[in-house]
Amino acid sequence: MKVYFNHDGGVDDLTSLFLLLQMPEVTLLGVGVMGADSYVEPATSATQKIIDRFGKGQSIEVASSDAGTRHPFPTPWRLETFSMTALPLLNEHEPIKTPLRSDSAADHLRRILGETSEPITLLFTGPLTDLATVIRAQPELTNKISRLVWMGGTFLERGNVEEPEADGHAEWNAFWDAEAVKTVWDSNIDIDMVGLESTNNVPLTSAVRRHWAHRRQQVGFDFLGNSYALVPELRHFVTNSTYFLWDVLATCYLTHPEITTTKLVHGDVVTDGPSLGRTILTASGRPIRLVDTVNNERFFDLIDDLASAAN
Ligand code: AGV
Ligand code: CA
289-301 burial, b for 16+ CB within 10 Å, e for fewer? Predict the structure, then answer.
């Protein structure tokens, strides 16, 4: 499966990249990095270092996004990416070998789509801004996309944006750039959506942390354990800051949809007012394959298999 990955530099975006590099089914064609749930420079260098360290010698180009927003992620979350790029495990071998392109992530994606003869699978684990930019500039390129797997949105009552001017229905990736969601959903791309419906089933528990700790002699588990040590443990009740394996689930769904159940829905997105970024079900909306449930045990077993493959 030929895959292009666009992420926004959070801890689970970067661990998703690590797992993607261990998947035998996946050929990674390029990575775009947004400074959304991160800052773009450390998120980009962490991306290059993960490819260097865990990419098994493959040469994969990385490009930084120039996208911005009026609705930034909370600063404490964004700072975690500085710690990711500083992990000793990622800084043992210098200098960085993975090439950084001088064009933007959107232009890089345009070039990849323009040149491919075989349609590509897109994995987006942050806002859809760069894809929307490509569609606005060259709508015919959507024919080169076999499908989009997106971590974002939710049709549940409760989203995860707790901000003064938001009513709490939206999910962060959709809230960050609701217009981009609109542009992408108005296109003819096949969309698989991994929203909070399924990701609520994969919280980062202390049992998961302990399991990774026990296997830390293996480098893949050491990397997972250290990465997730950067996000606070909030286990007594779910808050705005409770961590789930959102992006990792979207990544595992790419190659292992059988650990999930899906359903076909029709959806739209709200692009202004207090519900900005809220995704809604409506009969007149565009078709979406929504990941509905996930088998928690099989999900964590799959992560174990992938982490074991790293060396
Ligand atoms: O809304 C989920 C998205 C995912 O792409 N991100 C985190 C994942 O990368 C935003 C987010 C929601 N809650 C968070 C987030 C938290 N507590 N810490 C960091 N990011
Ligand atoms: Ca993300």
Answer: bbbeebeeeebbe
